[in-house]
TrEMBL record, chain A:
Protein biosynthesis found in the keyword field: no
PANTHER family referenced in this protein's UniProt entry, alphabetically: FIXS PROTEIN
Classification via Pfam families: FixS (PF03597)
InterPro entries: Cyt_oxidase_maturation_cbb3 (IPR004714)
Protein name, as recorded: Cytochrome oxidase maturation protein cbb3-type
Keywords assigned: Membrane, Transmembrane, Transmembrane helix
Organism name: Gimesia alba
Keyword field contains Transmembrane: yes
Membrane spanning residue stretches: 6-26
First and last residue of the signal peptide: none
Amino acid sequence: MSVLYIALPIAILLALAAVIGFVWTVSRGQYDDLETPAYRILEDDQKPKPKEER
Amino acid sequence: MPAKTDRLTRSRMREGFTPLIEQTHESETTSQQQQGTCIHCNLPVPTSRQTDEQPWFCCAGCEVAYAILQDMDACLLEELNNSETVPSSDLSYEEMDHPRFRELYAHEIEPGLFRIRFHLEGMHCASCVFVIEKLPDFLPGVISARVNLTNTSVDLIWDSASVSLSEIARTLDRLGYRPHPPQHNDAEQIYQRENRKYLIRLGIAGACAGNVMLIAFALYAGMFTGMAAEHLNLFRWTSAALALVSIVWPGHVFFKGAFSAIKTRSPHIDLPVALGITIGGVAGLINSLRGTGEIYFDSLTVLIFLLLVGRYIQFRQQHRALSHLSLLKSITPRSARLISNDEVATVPIEVLKAGDQVEVRAGDVIPADGVVYSGDSTVDESILTGEARPRIIQTGAQVTAGTINLTSPIRLDIECVGENTRIGRLMNLVELGVSSKLPLLELANRIAGIFVLTVIVLAIVCLGIWWSSGVKIAVSNSISLLIVTCPCALGLATPLALAVAQGKAAKRAILINSGDVIERLSKPGLLWLDKTGTLTYGKMQVHEWHGDRSFFPQIRAMEQQVVHPIASALTTWIDQQIGTEKQEFALRDIDYSPGLGIRGALDGTQFAAGSETYITEQGGHVPLEFQQKISEYRQRGLTAVIVVAEGETQLVLGIGDDLRPDAAATIQKLKTEGWSVGILSGDHSEIVTPIASRLNIDPELVHAAVRPEEKLKIIQESTRRGITVMVGDGVNDSAALAAASVGIAVHGGAEASLQAAAVYLNRPGLAPLKELIDGAHLTNHVIYRNLLMSLVYNVIAAGLAIGGLINPLIAAVLMPISSLTVLILSFMNRAFQEPYS
């Protein structure tokens, strides 16, 4: 019965968290460029080692 | 190049690799050209990159990435460093090392560390990202490089002590990505901010709508199965709270719109929306308080969300074709050769001021307006005037920024720079034209205005009719009316149909900048065509000749000495005619009179080639037979070049700019549909008139030798009288393109014209123009059908509501059905479909 009084606020809180997350990502500009990151992920991490030092 | 090719061949042999060069690709945009796909990424290869050597690559990035994947040698970095991919230009980028350039464009983040953003040409795939972001690995001094493919730019951080900016720019250029300095233009930033605001509003409205809908399901279920009052209240108040958030935050745009609609007394679609939201919200709130009756929060939140989606689509469409370079900068060069104390130094163009002296080499673009004080040359002013023939300039002549110095170096005294130059003022006119164009009151908005008033009146009437039956029934029926006649479909119909059409058109290489173009093209009007580049190819070609062909090699040898469109037309044409049998001659006493002709001795024989006046001046004799040919060529709009050997005429050639093959047919078709077609050209009337008569164009609508400012005036005048469409390609057209009701830039046009125009036809020829107009027709039909559908629906629904036959719940169920119908109809648009072959 009263489980609704707990479940509903939790659902709303979860939605709120998602909204806050979304707003945060938008204002950080994460949707400004939707193309490059998809390609960037294809790159290898291991850089060919320069011959000396580093 | 050889080292690279060797490496590729070597690796191919090692891998036992068979190149996929035979594979063809059905690409609409390059259907006429030879087909080929990139061996690395399978995208179509532009013709400019289709070299003799296989395999083909679509871009330098793929070429390098392919090499890297083929042999992961240890000396990879060295190879990358020394790799000589196709240099796209031989620019030195010296001016980037000038302190003023750094001051203007770069940003110092730490002492010695600078950040700059470059716009790059030719960046379009994964390999491009791959190669450019590897920049720090093979160019010491570059700290980081981050690519943004969406606006084709790169953010660079570099250490000024270990590498110069010009070196970085040269490397990028060598890799095939020509860098451009950023512009001081806020348009992009404003767009970005707006875009983020829209996204946030959409996100919140979506979250609210989703959650309220979930609760609504529970409430509807509770209607049938019964629900405890306390739970009913909990659900109602929760959805009331969510709806409040949705109304106050994302929904406030509608209230803002409604307020300004009231202030300006112009009915706007925001008005019924705001009214509906208010009434629904208040009624829902009252019913929540009372604990009985309908709450309308579910419909309200979904309505807000859907309308915002429609607006976002519209917003994105309007900004899709936003280009990245400012108009002026795309025409004038970025650097100039400043003369100070008899020394010539390359400086950024921003440094120039009136009173400075500059040198302009042959083939360079003139950086500023000024007066020639030394040197004789010819300039190509077609960018400004549309006149295809070069102008002769001597000491004391005025020259204009943006034009090209053709034959020999000149030195100038600068009079005006930047925005004060003639081209700068012209570009200001363009920008003014783009921004001051009054938006046509869209059909949907006009209808919505009437619609709002009608609905409000009807609601009051409904309230009055049912008043005697009790307040509760009267309010309930009025609310049913307001809900069932929700302008959702009306609001969504137009933008959606336009968005679908724009998407389809883009697939057919017709880029439509804003949706109202389609509405404006619905009825025939006045169509102005530019000649050079639009009706014609924009390139001089030999059309006909008469006389002795054995003199071809001599003409070729002589004309090769000159830089001039006619000369290059002659040499390329003769090369095709005589093929391999080229001969070498001993050239002596070559004398060139710019714009007139050339003479000289070849193996001891005196030759001259040029216009009729030039030949007679040189004492050449032109017999009657040839004179007839010359006047025949002139009648057809061709320039006659006469060749004499030892004073006797041997050969006449007719040179001109040829009509595009589909021009006549397209114009004919448009005329039968009721369009009036005219020509606006900067070229001489003796060139324009024959073409107009070949195309059957009314001589009253043919304007020749018009300057860009006059073109603008003609367009402005005819825009006042009705829908005016301007089709053009040059910079000289851009002000007119911006001022016309619909400006259409054709394939191969100058960048400024592309920005000023509302439509860009990215396929050669005029056939896409017909397709655009037909597509606009079909799309308008879809819009009308959509509006008609939602009006019919609304009339029936309103009748039912006034009759008290539906309660608010049924109204809420009926409402989205009309929207759905509109959605489906919009996607069934047949415009811009590939023709069946």
